[in-house]
Amino acid sequence: MGMSVTISAATAEDAEQILKLQYLCYQSEAELYGDYRMEPLTQSLEDLRDELGRGHALVARLGDEVIASVRGEVDGEGTATLGKLIVHPRMQRHGLGGRLLDAIEAHFAGEPAARRFQLLTGHRSERNLRLYRSHGYAPVSTRVMNPKLTLVTMEKDAAAAAVPSARTAGTFVTSA
What are the φ and ψ backbone dihedral angles of 103, each rounded to 5 degrees? Predict the structure, then answer.
């Protein structure tokens, strides 16, 4: 029997679960780049709460458990910067990351200030790169952070974001 996964706006009460999930999800990135001091692994609960207060965040829940999240904010020039798209390892490869990406885009596309979407990922993060490309993002620049990590900036025009469809519906059923 499947369970319903719901996607909704994150609340302040979700911060602790998001932080724990973030720590779990970024372990594979830290291993890939040989850097366990990356910001998602060192972010404090207070810093996360501040970040949640500045922008918009979504969570996916399986029952009461936060199993995925994404967040972003729009700057004064109309760029919606999306980040920290995380999905619990046991829930990966079920389309949840794509659903969250679609949902956060739909949220920011509704704001007149969002003219483009931008996100960053590491050059070795093939699954991330593949997901973002499949959602219309294209690389626009790279920045060498250290000998092991080059950040790839990817963007797409907000007008290219799909109108919310069945893919972005708030609930879907998965076998878990």
Answer: -70, -40
Task: List CB contacts of 23: < 8 A, sequence separation 6 or more.
Answer: 40, 41
Query: pLDDT tens-digit profile of 16-63?
Result: 999 999 999 999 999 999 999 999 999 999 999 999 999 999 999 999
pTM: 0.86
Q: How far apart are CA 118 and CA 105, in angstroms?
A: 10
- Name the fold adopted by 3-174: Aminopeptidase (3.40.630)
Angle at 161 between CA 160 and CA 163, to 5 degrees: 120
**C-alpha 24: how far from chain center:** 14
Burial of 82 (0-12, 13-18, 19+ CB in 10 A): buried
pLDDT band at residue 105, thresholds of 50, 70 and 90? Answer: very high
